[in-house]
Amino acid sequence: MSNWLVHGGAVLEGTVSVQGSKNAALPILAATLLVEEPVTLLNCPAIRDAENMLGILKSLGCSVKREADAVTVDSSTASGFVLPTALSGELRSSIFLLGSVLARFHEADAPYPGGCEIGNRPIDLHLWGLKRLNAQIEERGGRICCKGGNLSGAVVDLEYPSVGATENIMLAACRAAGETTICNAACEPEIVDLQQFLCACGFRVHGAGTPTVVIEGVERGHGTVFRVMPDRIVTGTYLAGAAVTGGDVTVTGTQPELIETLLGKLSECGCAVTRNADSVRVRAPKRLRGVGFTGTRPYPGFPTDLQPQLFAALSTAEGTSVIAENVFESRFRHAQELRKMGAKNRILDRTAIITGVKKLHGAFVTAHDLRGGAALVLAGLAAEGDTTIQHTERIERGYERMDSVIGALGGTVIRKENGIDEEEKTR
Ligand code: EPU
Questions:
Q1: Which residue's CA lies nearest to atom 33 of ligand 1?
Q2: How many angstroms does the Cα of residue 171 sit away from the middle of ligand 1?
């Protein structure tokens, strides 16, 4: 377990460039198994989830090399189809490997991912989609055993536009015989990035970014060099940081059009937003105004992954704001932590009612999940006094050197590895 000490009273100001996208990099790393030649990913974020995914690829026999943000995976030597239990347990998205392992080895054996901090996260749609492609799946002793000697294209009509299920089915279908059509596919930009990667490897995929994705199976792909898209959620997090601290932050190397919903909310809060082709600046007023209602939805709706950060910002905004979390059933655990910092909020099932207070105060809080943890960092920066956040390893699953990035913007986050002293715990 690691902890961070966040100094309150910061005003984030300056310019930072954004890391590569976690949610694009993870399925693309899984997809490297589909080709038996080296693949180099540029802008591959150095975050725990990506390192764990690389660890799993190594355990399957791939050779992996990282030089700064360039990661090369050579899966020509891979032979394993059994995903390691401990590492896969660390990384929920290890489930995305089912599709590519099955396509490559005609067999896959993966641990069943357990419950999680933001909801149950079942994988029924993943398994249903793979079965539609003719995979035989048995769930035995907490493991998922798949056989797919004759994967063949099919129409897969998803009941819900699940991001992971769409990606898993795309991966399995790349080398299946014939054509696969995914209807009601998720439209997230990361799926477009996955399609671009797959096409760069010689696979035939089109339609990503719309609800219909078509994959024409080919026998094999080839190696490539590919640049992972910028992380829209990390971009949004630092811009929300400007909003909550009354600051002025520019994020470069990003795609502002992918976070229009957040930028719209920040404007409603009274921030001045300036968009350029690949950068975006947010200048905050002294005190934010609350926004009536925000409901999370699949893309192009307001992203669930930015809900906690907006929640933190609205906690000090003038007036009452309402947020409905429609994607994950329990993604409000940051609400109780923010209350420890003086925030006023009430949770009624999937809806949060937030009454902004003038100032938060430092407290001892817990990061229950990645984005909720990031929201606590933002709140801690804006608060009066210091905040200690425990379980910050959860934040490091998706944020590259968050302490340095915040340092570059004038804030202070100090890492305190291994444990908390009792005095702090009682604060
Ligand atoms: N769902 C099912 N059955 C399934 C799959 C999903 O009922 O088989 C439900 C989930 O329980 C959830 C909803 O569908 O209620 C949405 O889940 P989805 O499958 O779309 O999400 P995911 O693929 O598990 C990805 C991101 C998440 C992000 C969501 C939604 C990755 C690695 N993860 O998860 O990212 O919140 O899409 O946009 O791409 C994060 O980065 O913090 C994060 C959690």
A1: 23
A2: 17
CA distance 314 to 266: 10
116 is catalytic: yes
Tell me if 328 CB under 6 Å of ligand 1: yes
The best mutation among 23, 157, 332 to test binding of ligand 1, ranked by most ligand atoms within 8 Å of the C-beta, falls on: 23
Is any ligand 1 atom within 6 A of the Cβ of residue 23?
A: yes
CB 42 within 8 A of CB 225: yes
Q: Which ligand 1 atom minimizes the distance to the CA of 93?
A: 32
Residue 339 CB neighbour total at 10 angstroms: 17
Take atom 44 of ligand 1 and give the residue whose Cα is closest.
305
- Residue with CA nearest ligand 1 atom 23: 164
Three-state DSSP class for residue 383:
coil
- Strand-pairing partners, residue 27, are none
Q: What is the pLDDT of residues 199-249, one digit of tens each?
A: 999 999 999 999 999 999 999 999 999 999 999 999 999 999 999 999 999
Q: Rounded distance, CA 228 to CA 193, Å?
A: 7
Report the atom number in ligand 1 closest to the C-alpha of 49.
32
Q: Per the structure block, which two tokens stand in for 415?
A: 């890492």
Ligand 1, atom nearest to 122 Cα: 3
How far does Cα 125 stand from its chain's mean position?
A: 19
> CA-CA distance, 72 to 95, in Å (whole number)?
21
Q: Are strands 136-140 and 143-147 parallel, antiparallel or unpaired?
A: antiparallel
In the structure encoding, which two tokens stand for residue 246, read together?
């009354």
pLDDT digits (tens, 9 = 90+) for 105-134: 999 999 977 556 777 788 999 999 999 999
Q: For residue 426, what pLDDT band results from cuts at 50, 70 and 90?
A: very low
pLDDT at 328 over 90: yes
φ/ψ of residue 167, rounded to 5: -65, -40
Shortest-distance Cα residue to atom 17 of ligand 1: 162
Which residue(s) pair with 302 in the sheet?
Answer: 296
